[in-house]
Amino acid sequence: MHQTFDAALEINLLHANQAGADHNREHFDQWGITCFNLMSSPGAGKTALLEKTLAHLHNQLKMAVIEGDMTTELDADRLRQYDVPVIAINTGRSCHLDSKMVSGGIHQLRAKYDPHTLDLVWVENVGNLVCPAEFEVGEHAKVALLSITEGEDKPLKYPIMFQEADCLLITKMDLAPYLDFDLEKLISNVKQMNPHVTIIPVSSKTEMGLDEWFTWVKNQLITNQKKTLTATV
Questions:
Q1: What's the rounded Cα separation, in Å, for the pair 127 and 152?
Q2: DSSP label at 70?
Q3: Dist. CA 36–CA 191, nearest whole Å
Q4: How far apart are the two ends of the chain, measured CA to CA in Å?
Q5: 141-147 and 63-69 strand pairing
Q6: Which CATH superfamily, name and number, covers 5-232?
Q7: Residue 66 forms beta bridges with which residues?
Q8: Cβ-based neighbour number of residue 72 at 10 Å
Q9: Average pLDDT by stretches of 10, the chain with 233 residues
Q10: Taking Cα atoms as reference points, which of 201, 151, 199 lies closest to residue 172?
Q11: How far out from the chain centre does Cα 45 lie?
């Protein structure tokens, strides 16, 4: 059966993107850096979570951020207040970051800072519940966020994001008393898509669940460092 032109084009784009992502990951591995790709729909709380994370881990880890947005540097400016390197990437009409864009961010970062001094690079992807999950950027783990205001059905309606996630943060839990929301139903829907994903309910406002999130981040760094050392032996 012949592929349509559009299907063939999509396969070629994903293949080229994957090659670029693998190249980015090689750079990160050479420098001893772990990279996390944060993904969610607009307004789920990625930047607020990063603010709390940068503030808490600033004295424990050397971090940088590659901040993706369609226009403006509003989120990048929020994160620069935490005294970490922040590289802003405006994607224009594109609804996601791809490996080529992140490669450009890596080169900007390397021109200004010694990457060997960094432990962790955060990639905050463009707010979109579909496209970011399909385009790897060189990350070692994907972190998805879903706010409780979005409803329990989103994992079933937009499965790719949740199938690809290594960790899912259920955000804005402080609003639960004011919403008709079923946490167990949401978790069940997520587990149908991805039975192995780590799920952490959090609130950046009240800091509920953030200690568990910080522990997950640090454990991932340890695991990735062990894998990198094993691969180089």
A1: 19
A2: S
A3: 21
A4: 45
A5: unpaired
A6: P-loop containing nucleotide triphosphate hydrolases (3.40.50.300)
A7: 87, 123
A8: 10
A9: 49 83 97 97 97 97 97 96 96 92 97 96 96 95 98 96 97 97 97 97 98 98 87 65
A10: 201
A11: 12
